[in-house]
Amino acid sequence: MYAYCGSARGPGGLAARIARHLRLDKARRWHIDHLTTKAPVSRIFWEVDGDECALVDCLLEAGATASVPGFGSSDCRSCPAHLLAVTTSILSAALAGLPTCPLLTKKQIPRGS
Ligand SMILES: [Zn+2]
After folding, report:
1. Which of 14, 45, 68, 108 lies 20 to 30 A from 8 at CA?
2. CA 99–ligand 1 middle distance (angstroms)
3. What are the strands, taking DSSP E only, across the chain?
């Protein structure tokens, strides 16, 4: 499974960005659009005013790997990618680290909400 770490600083904020990621019918503007138009999004985690690069660091520390270097991180100079290969245990480890890695909340929204 893969985890994509992104921001929502554009118009419409978080709700608009999440809704865009869930839509299958959209212009392919970013790398992630090529995946979200072909593969289902299973979960979305978010934190208001979070930092996607810090989240990438947190997941890498938990054992995630950047299997497609540069994917989703064209405008980032510090991350190997913003799309990471993860296992359920890696994701759980990252979530379990919330007190020291305040990047994610356990809030989840199901697809289509
Ligand atoms: Zn980054």
Report:
1. 68
2. 21
3. 2-4, 83-85
pLDDT in tens, 27-58: 999 999 999 999 888 877 777 777 899 889 98
Find the 37 Cα to ligand 1 centroid distance in Å: 22
Residue 39 Cα, ligand 1 centroid: separation in angstroms? 23
Structure tokens given for 7: 């921001």
Centroid of ligand 1 to alpha carbon of 74 (angstroms)? 9
Beta-strand pair 83-85/2-4: antiparallel
Nearest residue to 103 via CA among 113, 111, 93? 93
> What is the distance between the alpha carbons of residues 24 and 79, in angstroms, rounded to a whole number?
27
For residue 112, pLDDT over 80 is answered with no
